[in-house]
């Protein structure tokens, strides 16, 4: 497959963390909007890997060994793609 | 003249172990908690390097970044950049970094480096990091950052000598910034790259004991069951376990009074000592066990890491009140004392939510109200203390205060409007760990000693003055009522009575309420003095709570009705739940809210609310025949 | 000592204690209001966190 198509595939699978499936691993692609400053200030940023542990009003995820509770509203602004596990 | 010691600032993320390190270096008992944002003030201390040089140490509030709106971030940022008037820029910064969380903790360290301050990185909790499978390389980290990196275990006191040696003169010079200065993106990328080099992770996500515990404690149903069980156990144990030491204090009080009475002949000074001092102060000190237990359990919850889970669970409920889960710790602390609770609101990002939390915090019935509740509640239930019914009544009292607070919070929050920048619920759930007993005990003892000091000074003075007001001016008469009416208190009571009668209180109760504006705990001592009956010569006077209750229960209005029937007692309880009777709280509110208007408004609002609620309840109860 | 004078000295002693208490409170309040607000002196919670 050409490089262009791989990128297209990735963009197609781009979803927000709140939509993402519980129990799966994702990579943060970008943090959308000023609301995400809270996340950046915590040290979370693009390219970090995140595992979604539970959903709901506030979802719990694991990033770099840290458990984090994030409101689903904020998670809407976190765009991720699934990490393909071999 | 000795030159001014150089200052070293401790910076780092919450839960990185800064305060533990501060205590280890300076040997003081600053508070430690496993819930982000416990240290919300700047603490100062002193320590000596191995060469005997004195250095001043400043413990800054934990923050993830120097950019950001919350008050603790601003304090840290201002002190480090020299903008804080009270604390000039430090000569050296020690960034405490949690070795298990390098990817995130390094961000702050890099921001500090950008400020151009000489810096040392203290790599903390290396044992925990290694155990979780991380392979650390402090030398590599030091190379990449260009600053000394010292691995330490602050809680075990390891690595401290090496850290102090790194602080020898001359301080390491401010390092060269190895990314584009001012470019947050470049700094972040550098941080991630460095973290990857210095701390290789075996697996990115692993399930550990904390996760297994969270599967239960954060479960939508089980989690709530556990939470309610823990809260109930907390309050129940406070009331039950405290009973035994309270009995000891009571016996001590009685034997002291007995000793004085046998050694002194009758007279005013003897009365002052037995009734004013021992009786009055004793009525307050007897609550020391309860207060200690409450602070102990809160410390336990914080230290173990459960507090963050509680905040997570409560976020939904608090949302209905227009607040977030982050308001949970300040409000829970307010059950012990509103003052640290109000100060803990500094971790709330939203300014408006912070104001609302400060406003309603005094309605979480604080420990100063416990003496009042413990005096009055058994009167509703037929006299004896303890038991499940009493526990349920107490629960109802706390729920009432909390519930009203939430309703008012909701209304006030709506009134204030949305924030300029919306803030979302975002909370780190630290791993569970065994409580740090030494810190909890030290903290509890500190609180206990402060309480005793207050009792021994401020409350003692009040009790002496109150005794004088109930004794002088004297009237030569056989009628105890006439004698009482002639005293200062008697005259004040007469004046107040018409005002408080619709609420179900007589003048003496009204006077006791007035005295408790200085300190709520004083109410019990005041009632004991104001309602004391002249005893026949030779009869022993025992100022125990049960006796005070018995006397109150026997009191009657001139028309023969009991003065402290259910309606009056409930009315009095309602008044104490809602009235703001603590000037120190108002002072702290004024400071934290940034204006006196909030404190004054809060005081008058709560007073009016208490009076009206009391009035309505009493009159309604009378209508239903409960008087 | 007859009871009457015993009562007298006790009354004077008690009144002295009261007056002393008032003086101490007034002096401490005056001193505290002169000091800049840095903590919560009277609340008894020691270190305010």
Oligomer: heterotrimer
Terminal CA distance of chain B:
73 Å
Cross-sheet strand order for the largest sheet of chain B = 2-3-1-4-5-7
What is the architecture of the domain at 6-200 in chain B at the second tier of CATH?
3-Layer(aba) Sandwich
Number of helices of chain B: 27
Strand residues, percent of chain B: 5-15%
Mean of pLDDT of chain C:
68
- Average pLDDT of chain B: 82
Question: What does it look like?
Answer:
- The complex is a heterotrimer of chains A (86), B (627) and C (49).
- Chain A is of the alpha+beta class and 86 residues long.
- Chain A has three helices and six strands.
- Helix content of chain A is 22%, strand content 37%.
- The relative contact order of chain A is 0.28.
- The mean pLDDT of chain A is 78.
- Chain B has 627 residues and is an alpha/beta fold.
- Chain B contains 27 helices and nine strands.
- Chain C has 49 residues and is mainly α.
- Chain C is rod-shaped and about 40 Å long.
- Classes of the chains: A alpha+beta (86), B alpha/beta (627), C mainly alpha (49).
- Chains in contact: A-B, B-C.
- At the A-B interface, helix 2, strand 3, strand 4 and strand 5 of A face helix 3, helix 7, helix 8, helix 13 and strand 9 of B.
Provide a concise account of the structure shown.
The complex is a heterotrimer of chains A (86), B (627) and C (49). Chain A has 86 residues and is an alpha+beta fold.
Keywords:
heterotrimer, A: 86 residues, alpha+beta, SH3 type barrels, six-stranded antiparallel sheet, B: 627 residues, alpha/beta, Rossmann fold, two-stranded antiparallel sheet, 27 helices
Helix/strand layout:
The complex is a heterotrimer of chains A (86), B (627) and C (49).
Chain A: H1 3-12, E1 15-16, E2 25-31, H2 37-41, E3 49-54, E4 58-63, E5 66-71, H3 72-75, E6 78-82
Antiparallel strand pairs in A: 1-6, 2-3, 2-6, 3-4, 4-5
Chain B: E1 6-12, H1 18-26, E2 43-48, E3 54-59, H2 71-80, E4 92-98, H3 102-114, E5 119-124, H4 126-131, E6 135-136, H5 138-145, E7 149-151, H6 160-166, H7 184-198, E8 199-200, H8 209-217, H9 222-241, H10 243-263, H11 268-285, H12 288-304, H13 306-320, H14 328-334, H15 338-343, H16 351-360, H17 370-380, H18 388-416, E9 426-429, H19 437-471, H20 480-486, H21 488-500, H22 507-515, H23 522-530, H24 545-554, H25 566-578, H26 583-593, H27 596-623
Parallel strand pairs in B: 1-3, 1-4, 4-5, 5-7
Antiparallel strand pairs in B: 2-3, 6-8
Helix pairs in contact in B: 3-7, 5-7, 8-9, 9-12, 10-11, 11-19, 11-23, 12-19, 16-18, 17-24, 17-25, 18-25, 19-23, 21-22, 22-23, 25-27, 26-27
Chain C: H1 3-34
């Amino acid at each position: 497959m050409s490089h262009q198509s791989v990128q297209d595939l990735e963009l197609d699978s781009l979803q927000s963390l709140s939509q993402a499936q519980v129990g799966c691993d994702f990579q943060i692609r970008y943090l959308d909007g000023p609301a995400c400053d809270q996340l950046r200030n915590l040290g979370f940023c693009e390219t970090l890997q995140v595992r979604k542990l539970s959903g709901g009003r506030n979802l719990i995820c694991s990033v770099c060994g840290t458990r984090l509770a994030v409101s689903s509203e904020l998670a809407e602004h976190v765009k991720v793609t699934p990490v393909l596990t071999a | 003249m000795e030159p001014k010691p150089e200052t070293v600032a401790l910076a780092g993320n919450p839960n990185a172990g800064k305060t533990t390190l501060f205590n280890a270096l300076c040997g003081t008992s600053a508070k430690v908690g496993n819930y982000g944002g416990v240290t919300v003030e700047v603490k100062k201390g002193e320590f000596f390097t191995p060469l005997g040089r004195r250095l001043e140490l400043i413990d800054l509030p934990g923050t993830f970044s120097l950019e950001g709106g919350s008050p603790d971030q601003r304090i840290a940022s201002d002190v480090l950049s020299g903008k804080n008037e009270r604390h000039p820029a430090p000569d050296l910064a020690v960034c405490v970094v949690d070795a298990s969380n390098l990817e995130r903790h390094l961000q702050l360290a890099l921001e500090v480096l950008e400020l151009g301050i000489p810096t040392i990185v203290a790599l903390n909790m290396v044992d925990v990091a290694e155990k979780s499978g991380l392979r650390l390389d402090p030398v590599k980290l030091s190379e990449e950052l260009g600053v000394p990196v010292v691995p330490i275990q602050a809680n075990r006191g390891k690595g401290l000598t090496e850290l102090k040696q790194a602080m020898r003169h001359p301080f390491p010079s401010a390092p060269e910034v190895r990314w584009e200065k001012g470019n947050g993106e470049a700094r972040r990328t550098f941080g991630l790259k460095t973290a990857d080099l210095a701390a290789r992770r075996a697996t990115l996500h692993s399930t550990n004991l904390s996760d297994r515990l969270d599967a239960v404690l954060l479960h939508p149903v089980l989690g709530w069951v556990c939470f309610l069980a823990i809260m109930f156990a907390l309050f129940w144990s406070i009331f039950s376990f405290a009973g035994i030491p309270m009995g000891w204090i009571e016996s001590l009080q009685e034997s002291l009074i007995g000793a004085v009475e046998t050694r002194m002949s009758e007279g005013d000074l003897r009365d002052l000592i037995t009734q004013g001092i021992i009786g009055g102060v004793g009525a307050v000190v007897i609550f020391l066990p309860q207060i200690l237990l409450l602070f102990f359990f809160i410390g336990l919850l914080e230290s173990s890491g459960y507090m963050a889970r509680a905040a997570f669970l409560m976020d939904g409920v608090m949302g209905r009140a227009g607040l977030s889960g982050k308001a949970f710790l300040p409000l829970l602390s307010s059950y012990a004392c509103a003052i640290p609770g109000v100060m803990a609101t500094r971790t709330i990002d939203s300014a408006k939510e912070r104001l609302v939390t400060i406003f309603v915090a005094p309605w979480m019935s604080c420990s100063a109200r416990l003496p009042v509740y413990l005096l009055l509640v058994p009167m509703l239930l037929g006299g004896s203390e303890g038991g499940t019914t009493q526990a349920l009544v107490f629960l109802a009292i706390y729920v009432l205060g909390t519930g009203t607070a939430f309703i008012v919070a909701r209304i006030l929050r709506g009134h204030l409007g949305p924030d300029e920048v919306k803030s979302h619920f975002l909370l780190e759930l630290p791993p569970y760990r065994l409580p740090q007993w030494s810190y909890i005990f030290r903290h509890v003892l500190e609180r206990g000693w402060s309480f005793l000091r207050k009792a021994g000074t401020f409350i003692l003075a009040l009790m002496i003055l109150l005794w004088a007001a109930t004794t002088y001016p004297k009237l030569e008469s056989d009628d105890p009522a006439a004698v009482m009416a002639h005293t200062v208190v008697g005259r004040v009571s007469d004046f107040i009575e018409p005002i408080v009668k619709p609420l179900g209180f007589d003048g003496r109760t009204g006077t006791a309420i007035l005295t408790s504006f200085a300190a709520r705990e004083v109410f019990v001592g005041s009632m004991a003095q104001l309602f004391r009956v002249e005893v026949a010569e030779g009869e022993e006077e025992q100022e125990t709570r049960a006796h005070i209750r018995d006397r109150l229960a026997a009191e009657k209005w001139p028309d023969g009705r009991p003065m402290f029937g259910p309606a009056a007692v409930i009315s009095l309880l309602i008044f104490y739940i809602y009235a703001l009777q603590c000037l120190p709280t108002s002072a702290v509110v004024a400071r934290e809210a940034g204006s006196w208007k909030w404190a004054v408004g809060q005081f008058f609002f709560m007073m009016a609310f208490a009076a009206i609620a009391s009035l309505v309840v009493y009159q309604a109860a009378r209508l239903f025949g409960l008087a | 000592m007859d009871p009457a004078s015993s009562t007298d000295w006790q009354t004077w002693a008690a009144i002295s204690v009261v007056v002393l208490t008032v003086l101490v409170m007034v002096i401490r309040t005056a001193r505290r209001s002169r000091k800049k607000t840095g903590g919560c002196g009277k609340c008894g919670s020691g270190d305010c966190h």
